[in-house]
């Protein structure tokens, strides 16, 4: 090429490169010069209560340590750290907050009385006593304890037999050590040849509901392949053992039965003999590959795009102070029970209490399969600890990236305080739909609306194979929602049979059956609707045949309301599967501006659940699951619907939730009518007759809600069950509690008419978004210490 032509071409090319580089650099510079989003601290509000947080705050590390020191001093030097304890040792199993009596708490919160003594509840395993037992002690006052009192009989109606104790992590470790050292060596050829066992490639999965009689402590244990990074729950090998571990001395433990491919054997020695004799039908189970179907390792191309990010340009509109949350509309305190997990107290909307307590009570799963381990599963997850198994949450996945992360301290299963870093998160949830809106085109043209958002407090319980995401959500219209999502690994069984095995689920792997199971969650809703004294009202509709007033020869089917005051507990107990009133709410004597009793409606978001048959000898311990909704008188002695001691003795529970429902009055007298146990039925077209207004003292009531669903695992549950479609819960909605929708006062409300310029900030606040959000969010650096 001619040099005179080449030189100008090279110069032009260099100029083009410099120009492009300049443009890119200036663009990057302008992006980096965007201002940081301005954080506006949440405003203080007159309805905050500085002292309320301490009443319900979980015990802090100093208090937990003080209780342990006090117990060690007064129970003697024989206490062993439960992390190393044998069944024959004495140890402190757990220490957590002893909740104050409601009357004492309200006397302090509402009437300025002295705060009730701050106390701890300690559970002690006395395995070294002549009569081993479990004892519950209340220790106080904190932070400097000087007394303890035995409340075992007071709380449970009698002493707690030792076999009812929850299993320590140490006991799980001791069981596996016993199997590895004593039992598995009895079948070395079979294990190595058929299951590819090399001393570390198997791990145990336990059933529940130990034994067949009260007092048994015999557990079916399935063996699964254990490969680093894979969920063992998806890799059963078909071998299961029934271990009797009731003896306090592990040398006296014994395997009572062995199950393999549909057949039962006396022990592993018999299985080994049958195998060597060539009389045993076997299925070779290869080791799973690290990147197989059960792996959660990412299967995406390198450098994937970031997921959508939600952020608040002006910072959150709430503040977290200890365990107290304050927002422009809501205030509440939260706790985190070791066994029952997330709970709310003293929940107020604009300073007025809506609920005294909203809490999780129990989480139950019941399985079916043709293997003994899986068919006997009745997991009561409070026993394993919904709270202590709350793990650190991951920013940007478990919670929005800008969520407020709260640490939790627990003392359970070990003698030292354990930090659960970032186990609770609080955030504002933008839901991507309007809370309310209307586009009017009849008459004048205008638009009004409000984006839906909620204030969320969340924790996640990772109990064995399942992860339960617990949310309590508060909305600007005064509604409060409780919901739980189920995710994690499914529990499986080895698929050894043909069509018969598919009666219990779907095939989800080469030799893997996704076992059918039910989920049931129980919640306690201690509502205080405009005060303590409430009653229960059920409303529904009927079609009434009436003659058309303007043409009596024609008949109309007119829709009208029916209202029933549910005056006794039996009337306010709705069995699972029975129709619920379409509207059921707690009401008060106070009225709104339109003369209606102020109330809060209870809605349950749950498909039709499945409960164990009443004929089952375990049903009484699970009797809360009979009902989708119950309202009872509130009693301090009926504070929980389940117990951590039921898991290991379901056949003789100390108390049963069904016994809470004993036809006690929820009301007494209404006007001139005396309750005869039948409920009071009125059919009203408009308003409320004076005779329906209760005129005597009512009772403090508590509602109990069961939300449940059936899960038939399928291929899409591998590797994990997704949260979509696997959530249930409840909603508390104001029902004539206000004079109008309180969200009309929310600062995010917008309204504009046809002749207004909706692009002006002065007309439409949303129009300011491009200006206010033209900033770089203040994101915390990512860290995780939960593994």
TrEMBL record:
Its EC number is 1.4.3.-. One of its GO terms (cellular component) is plasma membrane. It catalyses: 2-phenylethylamine + O2 + H2O = 2-phenylacetaldehyde + H2O2 + NH4(+). Keywords: Calcium, Copper, Disulfide bond, Glycoprotein, Metal-binding, Oxidoreductase, Signal, TPQ. Contains 1 topaquinone per subunit. Residues 165-262 form the Copper amine oxidase N3-terminal domain. Residues 310-744 form the Copper amine oxidase catalytic domain. Residues 63-148 form the Copper amine oxidase N2-terminal domain. The active site is at residues 381, 466. It is found in: Cell membrane. Residues 1-21 form the signal peptide. Belongs to the copper/topaquinone oxidase family. The modification 2',4',5'-topaquinone is found at residue 466. The keyword Calcium applies. Its main location: membrane. Its cofactor is Ca(2+); Cu(2+); Cu cation. The keyword NAD does not apply. It is an enzyme of class 1 (oxidoreductase). It comes from Cricetulus griseus. GO terms for molecular function: copper ion binding; primary methylamine oxidase activity; quinone binding. It is a single-pass type II membrane protein. This is Amine oxidase. GO terms for biological process: amine metabolic process. Topaquinone (TPQ) is generated by copper-dependent autoxidation of a specific tyrosyl residue.
């Amino acid at each position: 090429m001619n040099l005179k032509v080449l030189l100008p071409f090279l110069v032009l090319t260099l100029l083009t490169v410099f120009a492009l580089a300049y443009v890119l650099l200036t663009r990057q510079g302008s992006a980096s010069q965007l201002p940081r989003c301005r954080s506006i601290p949440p405003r203080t509000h007159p309805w905050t209560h500085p002292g309320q947080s301490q009443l319900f705050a979980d015990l802090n590390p100093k208090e937990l340590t003080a209780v342990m020191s006090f117990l060690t001093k007064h129970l003697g030097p024989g206490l062993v750290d439960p992390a190393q304890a044998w069944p024959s040792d004495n140890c402190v199993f757990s220490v957590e907050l002893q909740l104050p009596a409601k009357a004492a708490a309200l006397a302090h919160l509402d009437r300025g009385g002295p705060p009730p003594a701050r106390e701890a509840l300690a559970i002690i395993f006395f395995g070294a006593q002549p009569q081993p037992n479990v004892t519950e002690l209340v220790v106080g006052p904190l932070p400097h304890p000087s007394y303890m009192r035995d409340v075992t009989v007071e709380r449970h109606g009698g002493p707690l037999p030792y076999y009812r104790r929850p299993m320590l992590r140490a006991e799980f470790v001791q069981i596996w050590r016993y199997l590895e050292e004593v039992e598995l060596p009895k079948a070395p050829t079979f294990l190595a040849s058929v299951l590819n066992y090399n001393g570390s490639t198997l791990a145990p999965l336990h059933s529940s509901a130990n034994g067949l009689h009260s007092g048994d402590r015999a557990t079916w244990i399935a063996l699964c392949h254990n490969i680093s990074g894979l969920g063992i729950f998806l890799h059963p090998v078909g071998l299961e053992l029934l271990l009797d571990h009731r003896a306090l001395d592990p040398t006296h433990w014994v395997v009572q039965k062995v199950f393999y491919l549909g057949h039962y054997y006396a022990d592993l020695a018999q299985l080994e003999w049958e195998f060597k004799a060539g009389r045993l039908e076997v299925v070779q189970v290869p080791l799973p590959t690290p990147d197989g179907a059960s792996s959660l390792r990412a299967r995406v191309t390198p450098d994937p795009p970031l997921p959508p990010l939600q952020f608040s340009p002006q910072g959150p509109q709430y503040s977290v102070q200890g365990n107290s949350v304050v927002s422009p509309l809501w205030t509440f305190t939260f706790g985190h029970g070791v066994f029952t997990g997330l709970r709310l107290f003293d929940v107020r909307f604009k300073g007025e209490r809506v609920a005294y307590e909203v809490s999780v009570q129990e989480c139950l799963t019941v399985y079916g399969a043709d293997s003994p381990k899986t068919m006997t599963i009745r997991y009561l997850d409070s026993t394993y600890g919904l709270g202590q198994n709350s793990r650190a949450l991951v920013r940007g996945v478990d919670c929005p990236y800008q969520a407020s992360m709260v640490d939790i301290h627990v003392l359970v299963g070990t003698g030292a305080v354990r930090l659960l870093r970032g186990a609770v998160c609080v955030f504002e949830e933008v839901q991507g739909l309007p809370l309310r809106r209307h586009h009017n085109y009849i008459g004048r043209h205008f638009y009004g609306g409000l984006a839906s958002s909620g204030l969320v407090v969340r924790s996640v319980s990772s109990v064995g194979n399942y992860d339960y995401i617990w949310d309590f959500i508060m909305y600007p219209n005064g509604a409060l929602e409780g919901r739980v999502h189920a995710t994690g690994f499914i529990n499986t069984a080895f698929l050894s049979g043909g069509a018969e095995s598919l009666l219990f689920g779907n095939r989800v792997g080469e030799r893997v059956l996704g076992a059918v199971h039910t989920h049931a969650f129980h919640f306690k809703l201690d509502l205080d609707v405009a005060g303590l004294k409430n009653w229960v009202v059920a409303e529904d509709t009927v079609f009434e045949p009436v003659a058309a007033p303007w043409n009596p020869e024609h008949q109309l089917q007119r829709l009208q309301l029916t209202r029933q005051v549910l005056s006794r507990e039996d009337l306010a107990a709705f069995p699972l599967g029975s129709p619920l009133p379409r509207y059921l709410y707690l009401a008060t004597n106070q009225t709104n501006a339109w003369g209606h009793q102020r109330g809060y409606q209870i809605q349950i978001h749950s498909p039709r659940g499945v409960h164990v048959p009443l004929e089952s000898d375990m049903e009484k311990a699970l009797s809360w699951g009979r009902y989708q909704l119950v309202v009872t008188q509130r009693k301090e002695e009926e504070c929980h619907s389940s117990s951590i001691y039921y898991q290991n003795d379901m056949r003789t529970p100390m108390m049963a939730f069904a016994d809470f429902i004993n036809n006690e009055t929820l009301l007494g007298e209404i006007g001139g009518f005396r309750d005869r146990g039948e409920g009071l039925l009125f059919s009203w077209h408009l308003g409320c007759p004076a005779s329906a207004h209760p005129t005597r003292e009512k009772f403090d009531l508590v509602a109990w809600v069961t939300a449940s669903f059936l899960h038939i695992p399928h291929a899409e549950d591998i590797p994990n069950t997704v949260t979509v479609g696997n959530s249930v819960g409840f909603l508390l909605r104001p029902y004539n509690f206000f004079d109008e929708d309180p969200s009309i006062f929310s600062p995010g409300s917008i309204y504009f008419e046809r002749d207004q310029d909706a692009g002006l900030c002065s007309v439409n606040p949303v129009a300011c978004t491009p200006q206010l959000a033209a900033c770089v969010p203040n994101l915390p650096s990512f860290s995780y210490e939960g593994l």
